[in-house]
Write a structure and sequence with these properties.
The protein is mostly helical and 231 residues long. It is 72% helix and 3% strand. A two-stranded antiparallel sheet has the order 1-2. Helix 2 packs across helix 3, helix 5 runs antiparallel to helix 8 and helix 8 packs antiparallel against helix 9.
């Protein structure tokens, strides 16, 4: 059984990634402590840990809130995400260990099962874990830190991808599952070029769906992230 502290940590991460907790939402330390049966000190330890990982923002005398998303962060996300993912992919090919490959395959099996079951929350979590493992394969603490922060917003911005509402979105989801299999094969073969090509194909697959989440119908996301459209 998980400890109450571990459950609190895992549950808050999941709720942030799946948008059960909204960006900028305040967290109540007392209520969390009562819910999980832990004192205020362990709650604060967990909140500080999540803040260090990029999930929360702790403000002096105002407590913790879910890390917000604004035009500046979204613009930066779209500018750098593909470059970070490509660098991670190259280093993963060079540095992965057999155990990590097994973990990647396990995450993919769970992701495929979640996609088949049309479980959007599980898809978000397992997709996130798949890409986290690729970061671990890279063995680069600087890139892993950047990747971790990117994955938080990628999950939140792209959550519509895992709730397909038409045939094209269904097709994209099916291709995403196949891309994961292709990543595994290319990394196992130590084929850097194929991994990088897959990174950009994978990115384009979800980019339009992320723009749908950011921009109201009829409004281009580029205009929003460039700051040319007011709030």
């Amino acid at each position: 059984m998980k400890s109450s502290k571990s459950s609190l940590y895992d549950d808050l991460k999941r709720q942030i990634l799946t948008m059960e907790l909204d960006p900028d939402e305040d967290l109540d330390e007392v209520a969390l402590g009562e819910q999980y049966g832990v004192s205020r000190t362990p709650v604060r330890e967990i909140l500080r840990r999540l803040a260090g990982e990029g999930y929360l923002d702790i403000r002096e005398n105002r407590g913790a809130r879910v890390v917000p998303m604004n035009h500046s962060t979204l613009r930066n996300f779209f500018l750098v995400a593909p470059m970070i993912y490509a660098a991670i992919g190259r280093l993963a090919v060079q540095s992965f260990r057999p155990k990590q490959m097994s973990e990647l395959q396990g995450a993919q099996e769970r992701f495929r099962a979640a996609a088949k079951a049309r479980d959007p929350y599980a898809m978000v979590i397992e997709n996130n874990r798949f890409h986290e493992i690729m970061g671990e394969m890279s063995g680069n603490v600087y890139l892993q830190s950047s990747l971790g922060r990117l994955l938080i917003d990628h999950a939140r911005i792209g959550h519509t991808f895992f709730r397909p509402t038409n045939e094209d979105m269904e097709r994209r989801l099916h291709v995403a599952v196949e891309h994961h299999d292709a990543f595994i094969a290319a990394i196992a073969a130590r084929d850097e070029d194929t991994v990088v090509d897959l990174v950009f194909e994978h990115w384009e697959l979800s980019r339009e769906n992320m723009e749908m989440f950011i921009a109201p119908q009829g409004m281009k996301a580029d205009a929003l992230v460039d700051g040319s459209v007011g709030p």
